[in-house]
Amino acid sequence: MPLTSAELNYLIWRYFQETGYDLSAFTFDRQSQCSKYEHQENEDIINRIEPGCLVDLVQKGILYTIAESDAKDDSDYTLLGALVQQEITNLSDSNFSKTKNNKRFQLKSEAEENGNRKEDEMDIDNGVAYNVNTETKELSTELHFSSSLSCDWHPTSEVLAYGKSNGSVIINAIGDGKFVESVEVSHPDLLNAKNEINIVSWSPLGNLLLTAGAFSEIRAWSPDGKLRNIANTVFEDISAESEIKQSLITNILWSKSGKFVITIDSANNTTVWDGVTLSLIRQIQTEESNDVATTNATIDANGDAVQTACWLSEDKFALTTATQGIKIYDITQPYVGVNSYEVRAIGSLPGHQNHISLMKLNEFSKLLVTCSDFDYEIKVWTSSAAHTSLDLNVKTERNQALKLHASPIIGLHWIPDTDRSILASLSMEGILNMWDAETGDNLKSSELFKNAENFSPEVRHNVSKDVLLFNSVLSPNGKLLAVGDDFGKVSIWDVNVKSHKGEDKSFVRCVAIYTPSIPPEGETKESAIGLSDLRWDHGSKTLAASYIGIESVIINV
Fold first, then answer.
1. DSSP assignment of 173-236, as one string?
2. What is the rounded distance in angstroms from the CA atom of residue 196 to the CA atom of residue 199?
3. Which of 262, 379, 455, 524 is an S-S bond match for 389, by CB 3.0 to 4.6 Å?
4. Distance of alpha carbon 51 from alpha carbon 57, whole angstroms
């Protein structure tokens, strides 16, 4: 087989890039000019070079050399003999080529044909772990509950709360795989309007449950179903004859200990509440964030954009503004012994060129990440440099294999890791990127549903490549990412970076899939069927999925 020095240099350069040796790849290219091999005449060859090609060729070369040496009955080993001597010593059969226990040199294609790969088994060469087949389980439901828009697990026990379209909320205790106790609470209808419950949210300590219904009405309940308080973010007389916009609560954000809670409604009212009594502290309306002059065109373009907030500490939070910036607020008690609080702006970040859709804080490193649905920018902010940010979702010399997000980003998830600040970003078209948010390095980049290698062979035919993703939620232990698509399917992905170190960046394991039972068209009264919410329990073992149009489910992962 002819292999020129230019081709060998190109394969070595590709190997450096695939394994993350960016500086070595840059230096090697400067000296050998191997990147010039990428021109139109070699396009057919380059398209056939898959990740790990160099290692695959080396493995084949080793096998060929061993077979040749054994055929010649050559006992004079050179460098190769020294490298494989330990393996030869450990074999009981003196004929090395005939033994079946030679997994050290087994190729990926041979392993797939023989079907002798075990779950989580890896071939390792030069410290790099390679693509393995992991079983993708097809999950079945453990329990069913009513159609719902929202659900939430109690933070410390197997108790699930979910809201129904008739204004009632069910609190279910689960034991031994079944519902053992239930409590029902309700929101009465207002102005003959259906009081559908669109959000339920447990406090971090589990001592309070907030439920949100029509006209942004919020009710606070004890875990046993006793009403604690009623509040509303629309401070108008809803009994008046004038037309009132039916705003809905779009987000509920608790501070870490539950001392405060923020609600955001569809009218862009951001309200800070006492997390114990649900008494009003302050409402921040859109115009208060409008610090600089903006044209009518800018206001019209972003008028329907809902604000986003994020807790930075127990008494500080960040809030997006109408000018695509970020304001930092502080909650203080004005005098010792006074029960009232003051909320004041203490700083700002310049933000994006377009509306900010998501904002998440890493509790360990205190890095703040934001993204925009319009231009798909992802920015990472640090408290030590408030006016500069690290831009992700851009290709650099270090991120040549990166697949850029080209559709709205539906999820930003910080992976719990005390050593590095690892961020997972997921976009609607199914691209998952894992980042080192301190350096900007891309750790993994995969088209989840278009890469058949992400699934075990027996389920690949059931997986559609053309899906849109709308839901994503990270398990509390940070190892599994649950994703919901437009077919209502729920897929579970292994995002434990520590176990993936050195693997092909395009490979992400799908460990399980749940496919709902959709009635044939015309057999359901509902005009729309879809997945509306996903929630992990505190043990990262059970997943609750709220569906509209069909029954919701609890899945044991």
1. EEETTEEEEEEEEE---BTTB-----EEEE-TTSS-EEEE-GGGEEEEE-TTS-EEEEEES--S
2. 9
3. 379
4. 12
Q: Residue 359 to residues 198, 204, 310, 362: CA-CA distances in angstroms? A: 21, 19, 6, 10
Task: Give the whole-angstrom CA distance, residue 487 versus residue 216.
Answer: 30
Are 163 and 200 within 8 A, CB to CB?
Answer: yes
Model confidence pLDDT, tens digit, residues 29-48? 888 888 888 877 777 787 77
Give pLDDT, residue 385. Answer: 66
Q: Which pairs from 459-467 meet CB under 8 Å and 24+ separation?
A: 459/136, 459/138, 459/513, 462/513, 462/515, 463/513, 467/430
Mean pLDDT, residues 206-216 taken together: 92
The three-class DSSP label of residue 112 is helix
Helix/strand/coil for 389:
strand
- Measured distance CA(200)–CA(213) in Å, rounded: 9
Q: CA nearest 372: which of 335, 329, 408?
A: 408
CB 474 within 8 A of CB 480: yes
Q: Tell me the CATH class for 5-116.
A: mainly alpha
Structure tokens at 16: 């450096």
First to last CA, the chain: 49
Whether the Cβ atoms of residue 530 and residue 544 lie closer than 8 Å to each other: no
Q: Both tokens of residue 511? A: 């460990």
Instruction: Report pTM.
Output: 0.72
Count CA atoms within 13 Å of residue 436 on its CB side.
13
What is the C-alpha separation between 40 and 362, in angstroms, rounded?
45
Range scoring the smallest mean pLDDT among 19-33, 157-171, 319-333: 19-33
Query: CA-CA distance, 405 to 543, in Å (whole number)?
Result: 27
